[in-house]
Amino acid sequence: MSEEKVLRTTTGRVVSNKMDKTVTVLVERQVKHPMYGKYMRRSSKFKVHDEENTCNEGDLVTITECRPISKNKSWRLVDVIERADA
């Protein structure tokens, strides 16, 4: 009875592709304020492994968790949903 770990998958925008085989992806989410009930926008930046250097800034991508590839990089690119207008 081995339980398989469920990997988190999310979508976000590429904000930087200046590194080799790495892109920075900004993931936005909405959270409800505990007291006032207003929805606030929160964001996180992830370093994502892009093996073929396929992403450009502004692309909408799907990423998933993986084993740590480097000190700050533990996400990898699944696919590019939408290309940025060049």
Count of runs of 4 or more consecutive helical residues: 0
Please state the overall shape, judged from the principal axes of the Cα atoms: globular
CATH class equals: Mainly Beta
In helices, the fraction of residues equals under 10%
Number of domains: 1
- The total strand number stands at 5
Report the sheet with the most strands, covering strand number, pairing sense and barrel closure: 5 strands, mixed, barrel
CATH architecture: Beta Barrel
CATH topology-level fold name: OB fold (Dihydrolipoamide Acetyltransferase, E2P)
Listing every helix as H and every strand as E from the N terminus to the C terminus, the arrangement reads EEEEE
Mean pLDDT: 93
The span between the termini is: 50 Å
Structural class based on helices, strands and sheet pairing:
mainly beta
Radius of gyration: 15 Å
Beta-strand share of residues: over 45%
CATH superfamily: Nucleic acid-binding proteins
Strand order of the largest sheet: 1-2-3-5-4
Low-confidence stretches: none
